[in-house]
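Data availability (excerpt). The following record was deposited with the supplementary files.
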Amino acid sequence: MSSHLEQELREQPEALARLIDKQRGYAEQVRPLFRRDDVQYILIASRGSSGNAARYAQYLLGRAHRVPVAFATPSLFTLYGQPPRLDGALVIGISQSGKSPDVVEVVAEARRQGRPTVALTNDPSSPLGQAADGVLKLEAGDEQAVAATKTYVNSLGAVALLFATTTADSRAFDELERAPEQVARQLDRSWLDLTELDRLGEVEGGTVLARGINYCTSFEIALKIRELSGLLFESYSAADLMHGPVAAIAPGWPVVAIAPPGPAFAAMVEAFDSVTARGARTVVISEDERLRARSEIGLPLLPGVPEWLSPLVAVVPGQLAAMRLAQLRGIDLDQPLGLSKVTLTR
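Predicted structure:
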């Protein structure tokens, strides 16, 4: 019998299609909040996989509105009781459960200060949903596995909906509506490649690299590997790696490089060359056949996905890789040690 995790991975295309179909109208309802004359920057409160979706929002919403998109510092709101003045902010809270007190408090304080607020959550009746001016329901359905998969992809989808609603690019909605099918095709292909990871054998940790709009993908893949297998994989921007951490790449050290086409591709090739020269064991997630051929393990990406939507597709090979590493270690996919489904932090 398959695990909840495997079932939920396979449900991702359907869940994403449901989000786009049911929440487009709600995204259009919150559009006026983004167009307020007094909005000068966007502040996002989030944790865990939701925080990785927030990294995607930094790129997409920053491009759409040409304003800074920053992460909130929840401890100032909760532990220290000294929230900053939020003049000029539009505040977004992202939480799959909508229950984390620190994320809720950032949004609630913003609303007390008279700032526009938006929540992205799988439960609109949650404290986060109740605290915000506008809510987009993630429409992921019930998720029983501890490791977030379809709620993560739908968090990306909700951010993409906000982008498509508020950007001047008339093609955005048409491209977004094709995303569920693209995720489905990527799942089919990545399942065929599942045992490729067996070639890594026993590993103790590794590094995940990306740059640009897929920076979120490197964080999410590293997190999924840590959650599911207990292996310490760390995420880096390919640029940050070159500012010192590359010195820790020793012969035999696993490096996962996420390299879809786009403005960041050349930088990823440069980083790949650097870690290869240091003897790293490389896993490349890319549609570029030549780069995959140069890697120890090449995981194909579906071609033709618009760069702004590539994180919804590029995370899939990493999700399955994380699952496979856990299987090889004999770990329960639905109940990794030391984790719970809902995490409440202040």
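Summary of structural features: The two ends are 38 Å apart (CA to CA).
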